[in-house]
Amino acid sequence: MSNGDIFVGEVIGTAILILFGAGVVAAVVLNYSKAKDAGWVVIAFGWGFGVMAGAYTAAPLSGGHLNPAVTLGIAIDTGDWDKVPIYVAGQMVGAVLGAVLCWLVYFAQFQANAEEDKAQPTLGIFSTAPAIRNPVANLITEIIATVGLVLPILAFGLTKGLGESGTAILIVSFLVVGIGLSLGGPTGYAINPARDLGPRITHALLPIPNKGTSDWSYAWIPVVGPLIGGALSGLIFNAAF
User: How far is CA 179 from the centre of its chain?
Assistant: First the structure.
């Protein structure tokens, strides 16, 4: 895979991931959305389908990492670091692009946030926030949840037929649904630094009425936690398999 293919694949795949993921949250929480109050299960499946669509799209070009934690875990496993910056750059650009596309899809609903009696914070559509703000607990949650994602991804690579058939992507998509349902309650399960940081930057820049804070004091946790989780996954995989 060339650097150009990797970059383009990760941009497109991550943009699709965020479009679906942020889109389902917007659908569930924004006023005047037909899916308002559809609930957490809908959000979990929306993110899972976003992984599926993004990874299948990106796979022929880049392998479909879509996540710096996955890229880091693979690099630690394989010892190949040369293309890590290209992957991460593509993922960050794609995450910003996907967040902008979500904003465009729900533009009318975001503009309706100007109605003072129905104004609501909008950061949760773009990025994660903890249910209980406890930095140590929040960080540990993100580390564990990311290991729950990246370690199985590395293990799936052992079964060559799964990867070649595309079945591995389908399995990972449902794995993300499971993580959301089982481990997403405390922090909203970022499990992906690009998925959180890119849209958070977008939220800070977009002209959304009454959008509220972008909560930069918390922003390091959904970046550092998943990176630690990805690194631990690579180390565990190398030691155990």
Answer: 12
